[in-house]
Request: fold
Amino acid sequence: MTVVDQPAGARPHLLASPSGTGEVDPPPDRVLMKGNEAIAEAAVAAGCDAYFGYPITPQAELLEWMARRMPEEGRVFVQAESELAAINMALGASAAGARVLVSSSSPGISLMAEAMSYMAGSRLPVVLVNVMRGGPGLGSIGAAQGDYLQATKGHGHGDYKVPVLAPSSISEAIDLVRDSFILAERYRTPVILLADGILGQAMEPVAPTFQRLEKSTPDWILEGAAGRPPRVLKSLHLQPEALEEHDLALQAVYERIAANEQRWAGEQLDDAEIVLVAYGTAARVARTAVERARAEGMPAGLFRPITLWPYPAQALRDAARGARAVLAVEMSAGQMVEDVRLALEGAVPVYHHGRMGGMVPSPDGVVDAMRQAWAMSQESGR
Amino acid sequence: MTAAEPITEQEGRTIYRRPLLLSNPTTYCPGCGHGIVHRLLAEVLEELDLGAKTILVGSVGCSVFAYDFLALDSVESPHGRAAAVATGVKRYRPDKVVLTYQGDGDLAAIGTAEIVHAAARGERFTVIFVNNGIYGMTGGQMAPTTLAGQKTTSSPRGRDVQSQGYPLPVTEMLSLLPGVQYAARASVCDPGHVGKAKQAIKRAFEIQLEGKGFSIVEVLSTCPVGWGLTPSESMERLRDTVMTAYPVGTFVDRPRGIAPKLPQPGSPNRSITEGF
Amino acid sequence: MEVSTIIAGFGGQGILFAGKVLAEAALLEGREVLWIPSYGPEMRGGTASCTVIIADKLIGSPIVDRADHAVVLNPPSMAKYAPMVAVGGLLVVNTTLIEAEPGRGDIELLEVPCTALAKSAGDDKLVSVVALGALVGRRRFVEPETVHRALAIILGDRHADMITLDTAAFDAGYEAGLEQVIA
Reply:
């Protein structure tokens, strides 16, 4: 991606307090930050103009961080009466030209589906963070990845998609917050940052200087029709011919996104005969499983999609070429595995290992699943 | 041409002029009050010279097309969410004039949470709430504002309050909130009331310009098709029946000292707590 | 090298705090580190736990199924986490509150009366810091001096008055960890 970089300089509030013993430590290269807080601060640093949210575990620290930081920066913070209201406030602020962040966790994200559809239809940028928890329904507050299909296949009603970015570490989450804003504004679309309860709650070292993002004034925002014809931002096109034309224009945008914005990472794939496919927290478990498998002599590798839509299908095909088996590892009953199968089109046997409800696959559990997949692929004559 | 421009003998006198902000002829049904309210809105914004800095937040219902008739920058909102959308617009652009234009199904049923909390926060935008007591767009079903006993397509034997509940007096309810600086109910039943409706709308925008807080004008209106009446019968029903159930007037104008008396924390109001 | 530590006990025993101190110490030593708490209803009542993973390279699984160290400060934690210690790993047991035996011969056991030591150091709430000291004393995977600095950083200006007490508690635990058996 081509982006405009500008270092924000040291942010003193991020630095650990001095020791209190009279000694002053030099500013550390890195500081420990919670995922939720790092995502929030990354948005602040990226020039987020407005944040709207509602408390829900496990993303509450994100709201709390914004409650403190946004007013400090003279920017907009509103704790809404519901997730429904929060995303609609985002809709309004986005229409007025604001760079907007909204965050929630699974049940709250469901409530936002309506407005996400409207924003996609009205072509309004927003970045929505989903710190996923167990479901369905109220589910549990444990980390899960059960919202993959919701995020990647449309979320609300109608023919639309939104880019979905999935970080697997806190440092990566920081980078992807900024990239989410870039994508949202480049393509005038909502973007989902798909995290989970572990990423939200864990602390990891991060560099204390976050990246800023330049902002231009687009020619579609609402500021009052002074000296020009009025602008109308809407998704309603009552004549079927007109709506189809609008929908085709949306599809053309999605084609451009699919062509230009796929992202993934690979680890130890060169000689891999069994390829794990996993994103987010599950990908980290898979990384440890790959190490253990290799220690046992099983040539394993990891393919990690970073954009879940657009799915890096061609890259996965390339990574799996010559492999005997592919194993999708998820914190769900098997959602992303559908995209894995679509990508591979039967070229390689595809298996799935998943835990649900806030349970997370263990590295040894994944290694066991790899052994089984390996055995099954041998039996199937490959 | 503006209203203040001198009129020459050759041009003749202007008896009627379409407000500049009214861009297209409306396509509402004959006798529907939306056209009148649109015109009042356009006149007020023009008189206050606000057209170029106003952002209209639309809603869902017959009023969904308001942006086709009013020459204003506009954003659509999902059904009922206009007050949340307007919160987002106004918080980011407090220098702009922001209004929602909502019907009673939109505001008083599906959008109650959003309107109550926007009012409670004292959001500094103006709500134009057009109440005709029915879902017009979808074919005349019962709304929360439908009068007791009133027949609609979803209350075919008349609204039975025992099973279908009582009409919801939203503006009176909102009047209790300290964040509400101005709340009034007006009507379009006759020219006299239309003039008062315009005054109320103007006052609401003045309150917004002063940055004081939330302002709402409920305008009682008609739905001849949904009510099964002719346009003139509708105006009569509005005057004789609807306005009896929903009295018009100013409920709150805090800058002018008009506000309902409420118990203050720590000093209970006898008239309310009597008997305990 | 990757070392995982689980610290578990009652809410109010300073579990998450001790984990943060350990994570900060690792950071000060320039290592990769991941700290993850138990969160939600659990932390509002009964038990609390956190996991700290320290490594010299990118950290993989945040979920630990073979803990190199487990520090258990109350009986339920003993029952839950003793089986999760990796073969050859270390289990630090707070003998003031735990009478049970882990029932494993393939791990190293370090029995320390953490609550009692915390009390004599000045405050029984320091029990987790004592336990952390014992752990570091036995398996010096971070330097004690770094933990001292980390304590000061985590306590910060707001709790600067606690630095002396916390440091003493850590040192008491550290001494206990250095010795083989403390009755």
Remarks:
- The longest strand of chain B covers residues 180-187.
- The two ends of chain B are 64 Å apart (CA to CA).
